[in-house]
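PROTEIN DESIGN WORKSHEET
SECTION A - STRUCTURE
LENGTH: 163
TOKENS:
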């Protein structure tokens, strides 16, 4: 896994006037940190009672209802981090597998971390990272350290991304 300095990331995001550039800084840091292609990194912001995809761009016109029926909605509603190291065994919306283009075709998500983006009066959005593969054991499980890392990234996002 790559190493990202969260303080430096926050400074870079704070100095960037463009929302799209702040988003790109965050997405890039998430990809580097978890050693994932950027299409396996998700950033959603709350708007009008739904979660709106900010990344990946191929889902920019898609929304997720804030209900317990979706992992992102549940994450937002409960304001809680969820780690799924067995996602293929859990019923979930297979949006990423089918709509995010990937070289070599679609692969199922095997493992995922879903984390709320904190705000002053509750969550402002959701960050997700996923590991895809033909079978669960073909990708590494997420660890407690990975959970701590995405929480740190979410704090930076809450301070600088959605202003």
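SECTION B - SEQUENCE
RESIDUE ASSIGNMENT:
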């Amino acid at each position: 896994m790559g190493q990202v300095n969260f303080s430096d990331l926050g400074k870079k995001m704070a100095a960037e006037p463009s929302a799209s550039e702040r988003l790109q800084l965050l997405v890039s840091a998430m990809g580097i940190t978890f050693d994932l292609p950027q299409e396996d990194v998700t950033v959603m912001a709350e708007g009008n009672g739904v979660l709106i995809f900010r990344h990946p761009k191929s889902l920019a016109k898609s929304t997720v209802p804030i209900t317990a029926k979706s992992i992102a909605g549940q994450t937002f509603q409960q304001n809680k981090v969820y780690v799924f190291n067995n996602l293929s065994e859990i019923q979930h919306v297979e949006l990423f597998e089918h709509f995010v283009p990937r070289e070599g075709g679609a692969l199922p998500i095997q493992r995922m971390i879903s984390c709320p983006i904190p705000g002053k009066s509750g969550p402002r959005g959701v960050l997700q990272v996923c590991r895809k593969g033909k079978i669960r054991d073909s990708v590494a499980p997420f660890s407690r350290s990975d959970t701590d890392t995405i929480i740190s990234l979410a704090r930076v996002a809450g301070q600088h991304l959605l202003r």
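SECTION C - NOTES
The mean pLDDT is 88.
Residues 87 and 119 are 27 Å apart (CA to CA).
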